[in-house]
Amino acid sequence: MSYKLLFVCLGNICRSPSAENIMNYLVDRADLNSAIICDSAGTSSYHIGSPPDSRMSFAAKQRGITLKGRSRQFHKSDFENFDLILAMDRDNYRNILYLDREGIYEDKVKLMCDFASDRQVKEVPDPYYGGSEGFDNVIDLLLDACDGLLQEIVKKQKLMVKE
Ligand code: 4NP
């Protein structure tokens, strides 16, 4: 059985597709494709069906990562279908848990920055209305947090990593 991760932001065109594709890149490098599966979603319906934002894709491409996928909205059924749900910021976190009225799935929902090596950083900032440095910052933060997340999963799930 694979361990299933869902990355969530507001629009699912900037931060969460970046997290999904960066994580896939790291998972691929560690030869863990059959053990870890990644997907992403947005709490809003604003961009359903859209590809990742071109500014975000450009920033990712600079680091050798191609952003794939189309925006979809987070759905209640995702609580059942995923083992871990990673919210990019506190608003996303709140909006996800708003759909879990009975509080059954709270343990599955974490902030992405809980896995960042810089303990001061609590959120992946929304880059949508800013300049290119905001998009570069998202990639830097996510490369670091995804690495921390992968190490945690490898440890907890007792996975074997390719050296
Ligand atoms: P994301 O960025 O949540 O990282 O995909 C945004 C995308 C779109 C909007 C806001 C943030 N928007 O307001 O349309």
Explain what this protein looks like in three dimensions.
The chain is an alpha/beta fold and 163 residues long. It contains five helices and four strands. Helix 4 links the parallel strand 3 (84-87) and strand 4 (109-111). Helix 1 packs across helix 5 and helix 2 (54-62) crosses helix 5 (132-156). 4-nitrophenyl phosphate binds at residues 9-15, 46, 126, 128.
Please tag this protein with its features.
163 residues, alpha/beta, four-stranded parallel sheet, 39% helix, globular, binds 4-nitrophenyl phosphate
Can you lay out the helices and strands and say which pair or pack?
Elements lengths: L2 E7 L5 H15 L6 E7 L11 H9 L14 H5 L2 E4 L2 H9 L10 E3 L20 H25 L7
Parallel strand pairs: 1-2, 1-3, 3-4
Helix pairs in contact: 1-5, 2-5
Bound molecules: 4-nitrophenyl phosphate.
Element-level helix/strand string: EHEHHEHEH
Query: What class would the helix/strand composition place it in?
Result: alpha/beta
Measured on Cα atoms, how large is the radius of gyration?
Answer: 15 Å
Number of helices: 5
Summarize this entry quickly.
The chain is of the alpha/beta class and 163 residues long. The protein has helices at residues 15-29, 54-62, 77-81, 90-98, 132-156, and strands at residues 3-9, 36-42, 84-87, 109-111.
